[in-house]
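**User:** Hello, beginner here. Are you able to go through the protein record under this note? It all follows right here:
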Amino acid sequence: MSLHITAVIVTYNPTMPRLQALLTQLLAQVAGVVVVDNASSAEVQSALSELHLERLTVHCLDENSGIAAGQNAGLRLAFQQGCDAVVFFDQDSTIGDEFIANLSEGLVDPQVGVVAPVFYDEQRGFGYPLVDILPSGRRRKYLPGTLNGPVDISVAISSGMLIRRSVFERVGLLDERLFIDYVDTEWCLRCAAQGIAIRIIPTASMTHSIGDKSLSFAGFRVPVHSPLRRYFRIRNAFHLLRMNHVPKLMAVREVVFGLIHQIILIAFESKPKDYLFYYFKAVRDGVAGVYGPFKMR
């Protein structure tokens, strides 16, 4: 099997040496790379424009349109270039020399449309649980270290996910209204509703870090994001409640845990007033059906 694979990376003020290292890793493993920049600083966009690498396409957006819009712009460029499959990455992703080869083994089966790696925490080294959302909304978890072979689940994060072009043609692109947070979850559950599972390939692994840091409290590990980023997480959980392909129990759980996590952040992080303000703003906008970027109104 020989697939024309294009990597899509959405950037926003990336650390250039780290991004360049990722590009070097990828260009040795895929047919092409598309970088979509979400209106970074003029200095960063200038540096991106000077990356004269073979098989690299850089597309700079005029405004920050969110992760979904950035990924969709990258997908359209990749499709124009004739790719068979697309693999997403974050701007700070790190992969090994055999990552794409190991991951693409999962697509040897023509019935498999989406494959994803396992993740380990960049600083602490623990494996992130793989979560399978059942049609009832209940969750089934797998730990990376316990897998003896590939396993099919319903949701995964977009970074490192390798997807056949035909899957996008069947279920559509990413939902740009969400801007950021739950973008990959919503799309994966759209796939699940049409009988398309995500096959986890344990031999393909990546390091990952969720949030700037994390807090541990009463058995919870709470990723620490900025108050503004928390706004999107909380608001979009309410939008999940409206979507027929998202199990209601799962959406309710996200709303409830959004509140619990916010209380912990308000209690233990700096700027508690900001976390409180953005929480109530997110709830109001979520209930009112407000989508897109944050607007102070």
In short: The longest helix spans residues 248-268. The chain has nine helices and twelve strands.
